[in-house]
Amino acid sequence: MSDQLTLAAETRDRVGKGASRALRRDGRVPAVIYGLNKEPTSVHLEEKALMKALMTGHFMNSVVMVNGVRTLPKDVSFHPVSDRPIHVDFLRIGEHSTVTVAVPIVFTDEDDAPGIKKGKGVLNITRHEIELVVDASDIPSEISISLTGMEIGDSIHISDVTLPKGATPAIDDRDFAIATIVPPTVPTVEDEELEAEVAEAQAAEAAAEEETPVEPNDDNNDDDKITPQKKD
């Protein structure tokens, strides 16, 4: 289960671009709390505290208590140049609300997968996280998937994954793939022949440049090395 985070906030009396810029200059980040059929509440957070929460790696799938209000982060906007957080959206939730969260996937036991260990196969990951519908009080921090016994050509689908009790996939209309063990990339004969031709052409071009005679001028100028002397 992901840890519950806590952030202190202050109510924003003024909204708008000018007010938001002023807050950011003071090391604060504007935010809004909405949901549960209540009016949105505009607040601002300390940037340092928010950055610390973001650095946990599971901010987006954690319950965050903002001034005693139970919330789930829904969006964080970042400055396109500095990457500093500039706005956060929080969704109000009840203690046992049903929420949809994106939970990261962790693959384990690669050394016990013959297709990778012996066959030199490559784990091709098509999904790095799974959207799950879960109880807000029991949000998993990650989904662990073992690769034990997997061979080249084997695939992992959502039906192969053991999910936490009470959790269901948000996508329920198909058995989507998560990862596949694919064969190692081996250069073909055509690839090797093309590389040899390119190398040969480059070597011939370099040799031709070295063999081209250049006669110096007799005017003692710096262009002696680059201007051939005309012959009578």
TrEMBL record:
It comes from the Bacteria. Residues 99-184 form the Large ribosomal subunit protein bL25 beta domain. Residues 7-90 form the Large ribosomal subunit protein bL25 L25 domain. Residues 189-198, 207-222 have a biased composition (Acidic residues). One of its GO terms (molecular function) is 5S rRNA binding. Keywords: Ribonucleoprotein, Ribosomal protein, RNA-binding, rRNA-binding. Residues 223-232 have a biased composition (Basic and acidic residues). GO terms for cellular component: cytosolic large ribosomal subunit. InterPro entries: Rbsml_bL25/Gln-tRNA_synth_N, Ribosomal_bL25/Gln-tRNA_synth, Ribosomal_bL25_b-dom, Ribosomal_bL25_C, Ribosomal_bL25_long, Ribosomal_L25_dom, Ribosomal_uL5_bac-type. Residues 188-232 are annotated as: Disordered. One of its GO terms (biological process) is translation. Belongs to the bacterial ribosomal protein bL25 family. CTC subfamily. This is one of the proteins that binds to the 5S RNA in the ribosome where it forms part of the central protuberance. NCBIfam families: bL25_bact_ctc (TIGR00731), PRK05618.1-2 (NF004128). Part of the 50S ribosomal subunit; part of the 5S rRNA/L5/L18/L25 subcomplex. Contacts the 5S rRNA. Binds to the 5S rRNA independently of L5 and L18. This is Large ribosomal subunit protein bL25. It comes from Sphingomonas aurantiaca. The gene is rplY.
